[in-house]
């Protein structure tokens, strides 16, 4: 765990056991990362005006941005960012004040906006846009901008979701043992 980890207004990020945070990522404020998760190069997770919660065995890949929205008169809770267990967040993904269930795969360059709810066992295709407040039902593939339900997941795809997360647990273990700065 070598990332740029900073407190904000006296609130320090909480990092679980056996977590890999790349030295070129930035974690700020009210961010909790569950055990055996990984945060890869150039990820920014900014829990400044609300909280970010990342579950166990979840991987957030290179160049992704995680942020939240503050409370307001019309939305007293604001929008925290909640990410479940065994989630794969692909490269260059933007997650902003949304809720991601367990065993979800978010394709590269997808954008998920405030108040969106992604239920368990979902695949979101690369480049997809999930608009504010949209709910994606469990067991489906979603693609497009704005995102649309494409079809039910196959059994093989459902089985791949926890395997994708497990693959990143193995990779982060290797990084914890073998990555050194030069």
TrEMBL record:
CDD domains: LbH_gamma_CA_like
UniProt cross-references to PANTHER family, sorted A to Z: DYNACTIN SUBUNIT P25, PROTEIN YRDA
InterPro entries attached to this UniProt entry: Hexapep, LbH_gamma_CA-like, Transf_Hexapept/Carb_Anhydrase, Trimer_LpxA-like_sf
Matching Pfam families: Hexapep (PF00132)
Name of the molecule in the record: Gamma carbonic anhydrase family protein
SUPFAM superfamilies in the cross-refs: Trimeric LpxA-like enzymes
């Amino acid at each position: 765990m070598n990332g740029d980890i900073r407190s904000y207004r006296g609130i320090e990020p909480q990092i679980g056991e056996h977590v890999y945070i790349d030295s070129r990522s930035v974690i700020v404020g009210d961010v909790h990362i569950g055990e055996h998760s990984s945060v890869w190069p150039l990820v920014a997770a900014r829990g400044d005006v609300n909280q970010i919660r990342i579950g166990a065995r979840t991987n957030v890949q290179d160049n992704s941005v995680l942020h939240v929205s503050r409370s307001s008169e019309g939305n007293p809770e604001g929008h925290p960012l909640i990410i479940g267990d065994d989630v794969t967040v692909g490269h260059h993904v933007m997650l902003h004040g949304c809720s991601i269930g367990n065993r979800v795969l978010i394709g590269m360059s997808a954008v998920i906006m405030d108040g969106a709810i992604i239920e368990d066992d979902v695949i979101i295709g690369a480049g997809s846009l999930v608009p504010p407040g949209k709910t994606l039902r469990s067991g489906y593939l979603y693609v497009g901008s704005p995102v649309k339900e494409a079809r039910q997941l196959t059994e093989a795809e459902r089985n791949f979701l926890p395997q994708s997360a497990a693959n990143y647990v193995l990779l982060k273990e290797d990084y914890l043992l073998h990555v050194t700065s030069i």
